[in-house]
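User: Let's play a game. I give you a shape written as tokens, and you guess the letters that built it. Ready? Here's round one.
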């Protein structure tokens, strides 16, 4: 309780309260900078291990994979970008078939707000993947995919979109 009072930032985009499990187990808001104290040291170690050129290639690849994901989202029915990505964060909504013909109105966004938490719960229970979601201002919950792993490839990103559709198509 003391740690939470001292370090809590109340970052609702990181610590959603509408999860299917007891959110008191989320420890991130109980530590300095969400338990990310040694970030600079980890970056320095990676830089020393892979070198400047490889680090640059990794950044370029992350940006290319994020761009690919955004292009796929634009092509697929039921997916919609929140905003054109400017770095490796790709924010998007999944719109299940039952909502695709609903006119753009407050009722649509109210229903859409409940989609991401249900799909996330299904992801976690199935063990297929874990992608965060958040709301921003008056925008309904959306998925926030950060594409930074050097191992991620196009097939992985296709799987992400296929899996979200598979987990949410009945909503």
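Assistant: Ready! My guess for every position:
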């Amino acid at each position: 309780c003391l740690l939470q009072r001292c370090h809590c930032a109340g970052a609702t985009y990181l610590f959603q309260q509408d999860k299917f499990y007891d959110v008191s187990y989320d420890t991130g808001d109980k530590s300095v900078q969400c338990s990310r104290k040694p970030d600079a040291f980890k970056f320095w170690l990676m830089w020393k291990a892979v070198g400047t050129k490889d680090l640059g290639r990794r950044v370029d690849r992350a940006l290319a994979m994020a761009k690919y994901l955004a292009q796929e989202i634009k092509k697929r029915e039921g997916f919609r970008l929140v905003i054109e990505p400017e770095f490796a964060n790709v924010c998007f909504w999944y719109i299940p078939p039952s909502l695709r013909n609903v006119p753009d109105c407050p009722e649509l966004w109210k229903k859409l707000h409940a989609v991401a938490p249900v799909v996330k719960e299904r992801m976690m229970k199935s063990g297929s993947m874990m992608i965060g979601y958040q709301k921003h201002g008056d925008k309904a919950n959306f998925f926030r995919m950060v594409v930074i792993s050097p191992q991620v490839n196009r097939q992985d990103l296709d799987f992400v979109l296929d899996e979200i559709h598979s987990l949410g198509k009945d909503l």
